[in-house]
Amino acid sequence: MKKKFGIIFLLISGLVSLYALYSLIGYTIVELGYPVLHSSSGNAYFGGNLIMLGVAAAVLIVLLPIQIVVIKKLIGKTHRLDKFNVEPLK
Amino acid sequence: MFGYYKKFIIIFTVFALLLSLSGCNGGNEARKIVEPEERVATLTLCASNGEGEKVFGLFNFGHAFIVLENNSDEAMDICGFSLPAGHSVTISTWSVTKKFGVWFNVESSLIKAIDKYSDRVAVSCALDTSAVGKLQDYLIAHNSWSVFSNCTVFSVGLFNALVGDENRIDISGIKTPEKLKKQIMRFDTYSLCNPIATDEQIGFLDKNGSYVGGYALEV
Fold first, then answer.
1. Which of residues 56-75 of A touch B (CB under 8 A)?
2. How many degrees, rounded to 5, is the angle at CA B10 between CA B9 and CA B14?
3. pLDDT tops 80 at residue A81
4. How many Å lie between the alpha carbon of B39 and the closest alpha carbon of chain A?
5. Which of A75, B14, B59, B149 has its CA 20 to 30 A from that of B176?
6. Residue from the list A39, A45, A51 with its beta carbon closest to the beta carbon of B214
7. A-B interface: how many C-beta pairs under 8 angstroms?
8. What is the pLDDT of residues B99-127, one digit of tens each?
9. Mutate to test the interface with A, among B53, B54, B56, B58 (most CBs of A within 10 A)
10. Domain total of chain A
11. Do the domain assignments include residue A89?
12. Which residue ranges make up each domain of chain B?
């Protein structure tokens, strides 16, 4: 049951992470092509794309460590089963 | 087990229905702008839903802003910003790193520089002296930006505060430029891609409500 939950979590979070990665690259390209507000006291940047960049980065920062932990646990479980040649109860 | 799913489907359907209805507001009958007899300025409410600028998979909600034209014989002072007679200024709120709040002439400069908001729709209304008097107070009171207090909330609020109840625009749910565009298109005098004079004095209102200028667009 836990293994099934882990795989479903990895599938869903994997899709979310892929979209976050796409957003990270997309909004960076859009922001780079955007004009800048220039003044003698320094430049100012339009924040709409920067906010979306921040959201995408935050999603990746939160999801990636959890995914690594889940993958480690799943692999660990598989290894243990292989090592002791344990078969699931039928 | 099936009962659980049935409940979930019913809740989901009701939620989806409410969400779709939140975009609707009243009927589709054409509206007429009721204008005062005296005209010292013209207020134009513009909205663009970012059509033509959208990138696949990325959010682009568009933008809403106000154009104020000085139709009087003398310069108009807006929180320290001097608007000469016959000139116009674009005003809206922006999430710019320097200031999340009210910015002047960003839109007119963007239109000139990169032909932005080419899908914009606009509706204009004359302002009398008393309406112009309310402008400064509104700008100072709404000098901020957040997702739920965005450019559409600001622009619609300013329009409603100055043009009177007959011309009031109501948007239910989360206010977005797309919803505003639909509301503007209900007025029989709405225009598409209205010409906007460019004045390159870009600036913002600081936390005390005073105009800080000296910005220019660098493409």
1. none
2. 115
3. no
4. 34
5. B14
6. A39
7. 57
8. 999 999 999 999 998 889 999 999 999 99
9. B58
10. 1
11. no
12. 29-215
